[in-house]
Amino acid sequence: MSQAAGPWSDAGEYEIRLLGHLETRWAAWFDDLDLVRHSDGTTVVHGPVLDQAALHGLLQKIRDTGLPLISVTRIDRQHRHDRRTT
């Protein structure tokens, strides 16, 4: 079985938005990812994800929180740079 080629096979940075607020005690469960609670009632889980298998594991953890998933966005390096300079 061969691995998929292209940008989806590489490690990446992800931003996962949830409806509701996760308390800070959840941060340890999400390893080195950042949890940011926003005033609009959402929580963003953000950080590097090793590969697609790790992303699926992360999504399972998010499912287990019971909060609805709003979006999963892969942040490419150019987009991340643009966000910092605006």
What does this structure look like?
- The chain is α+β, with helices and mostly antiparallel strands and 86 residues long.
- The protein has one domain (11-85): Alpha-Beta Plaits (2-Layer Sandwich).
- It is 27% helix and 31% strand.
- The protein has helices at residues 52-65, 77-85; strands at residues 12-19, 34-37, 42-49, 69-75.
- It has a four-stranded antiparallel β-sheet with strand order 2-3-1-4.
- A hairpin with a 4-residue loop joins strand 2 and strand 3 (42-49).
- The longest helix has 14 residues, at 52-65.
- The chain is globular and about 30 Å long.
- The model has no long low-confidence stretch (mean pLDDT 83).
Structural class: alpha+beta
Output mean pLDDT.
83
* CATH top-level class: Alpha Beta
State the helical fraction.
25-40%
Number of E-state strands = 4
* Elements, N to C (H/E): EEEHEH
If strands are numbered along the chain, what order do they take across the biggest sheet? 2-3-1-4
What shape does the CA trace take? globular
Sequence stretches where pLDDT stays below 50 over 5 or more residues: none
Characterize the biggest β-sheet. 4 strands, antiparallel
* Number of individual domains: 1
The number of helical elements comes to: 2
CATH fold descriptor = Alpha-Beta Plaits
Radius of gyration: 14 Å
Distance between the termini: 43 Å
CATH architecture: 2-Layer Sandwich
Name the beta content range: 25-35%
